[in-house]
Amino acid sequence: MNKVILMGRLTKDPEVRYTQTSNTLVASFSLAVNRRFVRQGEERQADFINIVAWGKTGEFCSKYFKKGQQVGIIGRIQTRTWDDDQGQKHYVTEVIAEETYFADSKRDGDSGASSFDATFGAMPNMGESSDFEISSGDDLPF
Question: What predicted TM-score, i.e. pTM, was given to this entire model?
Answer without folding.
Answer: 0.71
